[in-house]
Amino acid sequence: MGKIEVSDREYPRPTILIVDDTRDNQELLVSLLKQDYRVKVAGNGPRALDIAQCSPYPDLILLDVNMSEMDGYEVCRRLQENPLTRDIPVIFVTAASSQESETLGLQLGAMDYITKPISPNIALLRVRNQLLLRKSLNKLHLTSIVFENTLECIMITDAQGDIIDVNPAFSRITGYTREEVLGKNPRFLKSGHHDQPFYAEMWHEINTTGYWSGELWNRTKTGECYPELRSISAVTDTQGIVTHYIGISSDISQIKHHEEQLERIAHYDALTGIPNRLLLADRMRQAIAQAKRDRKMLGVCYLDLDGFKPINDTFGHQAGDSVLVEVARRISNILREGDTIARLGGDEFVVLLPDLNHVEECIATLKRLHESISLPVSIQDHSNSLTASIGVSIFPGDDNDPDVLLRHADQAMYIAKQSGKNRYHLFDPTHDRQSRIYQEAMLRIQQGLDKQEFELYYQPKVDLSTREVVSVEALIRWNHPERGLLLPGEFLTDIRNSELEIRLGEWVIDTALGQLMQWCKEGLILDISVNIDACHLQYEGFVEYLKHRFNAHPGLPSGRLHIEILETAALEDFTTVTATIEACRVMGTRFALDDFGTGYSSLTYLHRLPIDTLKIDQSFVRDMLVDKGDNAIVQGVIALAKAFGLKTVAEGIETMEHFEALLAMGCESGQGYGIARPMPVSDLIRWARNSDVYFLPVL
């Protein structure tokens, strides 16, 4: 909004009523006015009174004085008596121009006279002037109504800033009457909320642009400060010189009150009255910035109540809420003035401890918090005790991002809970980095499964006496797009004892069963053994899963799938593992105990375990020719297997000497690099064909 200039404006064409009983006069006036105005004609007084009362009302009446039926004076008198027509300006048209006749007409309410014979130029000017005057009066009347009745406070000053008028709303809001403020400068309303630079900037904008708008605090007559939304406009004349200033304002006290309520709702916990998560984030940013400036430490403490849920379940939510309020009060009493307590929801609180010189200061506060929270709480005449698990992250030792600090404190809190509750735990950035690496590895393996980057390699197993290839061991490989071909040891440790390990194991079984079916169709008779981890074998849905997969491959001969489990895995939960093996054997699956001799299984367990094969660990086979101890172990395992009616497979056969020694000891099967390395399925078929069909090549 710019400066207000006082100037004429164009309006829609006004309506003029001509009242004359002489046709010549009517035609003359109509011809003069019809180009610029809408014209109505009445041939006598009564007709004129009727037309004047009909909408749209005339803006001006040209009234002949001397008419036979009712003269102009009587018509004018009646127009003034009627509320609908009294404000319509009247110009008398008459040949009588005596002072007495003009005086009478003006006394009756006429605004002007046009004398006969009519001068066109004078008549047009008098009509134009009266219409402009009427427009101005209408505008002034409307302005006066607005000024007097608006709810906004209006103040008008002269060019020097002294008040020349105020409206009733000003008096209602400020308490000052109009008479008390006239001639005064508005600065007497100042509240003290704004400094001199504020007013200097305000007047600079008014003097530069002619307008200012903003929030202003003023003071009432009783001394009460109140906020208002004020606009100040400079009024200029046609030369651009300021003549007045107009200030219009609205009392926004109620809006401010509502804003404060919304602010509190948005930033404070409704139950306890302490800051919520939103305000906590702002406090954390401020505390981090302060710690950087002062080169101090900031402790972020994530607190979760131990034993709150039983209280809530036993005594109800209302009792639980009262406990939360009491805990918030206790924590607040422990903290220093610059500390912050916030409630995130439920029974979770966060405490910010800024301005720390040493971690020990934080630990001292944590101990006081534990002592205070653990004091008995009376609930419905019952004494109950609570404790708290607290996780702590420290800036600058940890990250400088508020969300990361809070997340790390949350992680540390869970460690405190898992460690026995009612204790605190400081976040360890090194452990967190390892955890992130672990999560990234898990995600990458998941993506590898989804993108079909995994492949099974197969290592042949041969019958040592016939040198016939009787089966293959399926070994997983990862065709990593960046790192190349990865062996199991480079990625399986990342998913040990996880759901992803189970999913990967299921993929191995699915792929192996599919390969068995393909070989059956091609007339190739080979068994496949797969390695299954303990957590997968002990998974409660393992038996049903395997049954479902066998059903998906109808026609697969029984006994073609072998599952190899580690000796240590079999002993983890002997009862569960035994039941699982027995259920799978019913479906035709065979089992081998892998790396036998490396664990601590007793003969009792071995006798009770429903397996088919013992695999002699390669660590014994490798040195059996030079180490008497290893040689004795290998012989002992073979003898033990025969005693229990089990088959034996030796791992790690690298030379013909190994091969012949194992054959002499009575070992039935073997595998190793001396026979063949693990290879893709396509290479396996070529290897078999080039090795005189299932016979061991020259070692």
Can I get a quick summary?
The protein is an alpha/beta fold.
SS-derived structural category: alpha/beta
Largest sheet: 8 strands, mixed, barrel
**Overall number of strands:** 27
CATH topology of the largest domain: TIM Barrel
What is the general shape? elongated
The parts where pLDDT drops under 50 for at least 5 residues are 1-11, 692-699
Q: Given this structure, which CATH class of the largest domain is correct?
A: Alpha Beta
For the termini, the CA-CA separation is 99 Å
- For the biggest β-sheet, the strand order reads 19-20-22-23-24-25-26-27
Known CATH architecture of the largest domain:
Alpha-Beta Barrel
Descriptive overview:
- With 699 residues, the chain is of the alpha/beta class.
- It folds into four domains: 4-147, Rossmann fold; 150-256, Beta-Lactamase (2-Layer Sandwich); 270-427, 2-Layer Sandwich (Alpha-Beta Plaits), CATH 3.30.70.270; 453-690, EAL domain (TIM Barrel).
- Helices cover 44% and strands 23% of the residues.
- It has 25 helices and 27 strands.
- The strands form five sheets. Strands 19-20-22-23-24-25-26-27 form an eight-stranded mixed beta barrel, surrounded by five helices. Strands 1, 7, 8, 9, 10 and 11 form a six-stranded mixed beta sheet that branches. A five-stranded parallel beta sheet has the order 3-2-4-5-6, with helices on both faces.
- Strand 9 (211-219) and strand 10 form a beta hairpin.
- Helix 12 (317-334) packs antiparallel against helix 13 (359-373) and helix 16 packs parallel to helix 18 (542-551).
- The radius of gyration is 51 Å and the shape is elongated.
- Residues 1-11 and 692-699 have low confidence and may be disordered.
